[in-house]
Description:
mainly alpha; 5 strands; three-stranded antiparallel β-sheet
Amino acid sequence: MEDTAPLDLVGVDPEAERAYRHLLARGAGTVDDVAAEFGMTYPEGLALLERLHGFGLVSRRTSGEFLTVDPRHALRVLVESRERQLASVRETAGSLGAIFDTAKRAGSGSHGTLVISGPETVGDRYYRLKQAARTEICCLDRPPFLLVPNGPIDEAAVGRGVRVRAVYAAASFAADGEWRTRCRPAT
């Protein structure tokens, strides 16, 4: 059974991965070999091998032959490179968040209570709060209940380890008029 590692997660497109697997099975190959195997022109085969070379998956000899690099090393280097890129993006979040906060403060004219209205505005604000939650989120719910196991609200927060609780609204009034809450931790 062929290994199906998702190399596209480190930028290796499916065509390049197929060519890499082909070369791994043979240890090396030329542009002519790859072009013939994959039914492409010489320039297309060369571009494909150059992409693999750029990823560090093959090395190029002066003879024009492309040798495969041990994937245990080459893929580790690709993953580490992607991790550095993602860390750089993560570091940018703070400065972008400051810009966001400044714009929100300037737009609302207030640093205290924020009053919002309208379904789109409320929905947008709730979505942002849900995305920012780190430990727990408690919300109001009403029929049809949105907080179903594996439902749209649970997925984003619970996937990050956030505890989700709901207080059910009007439908939760008992016949005697007493307010009942039903809180359940998300699974």
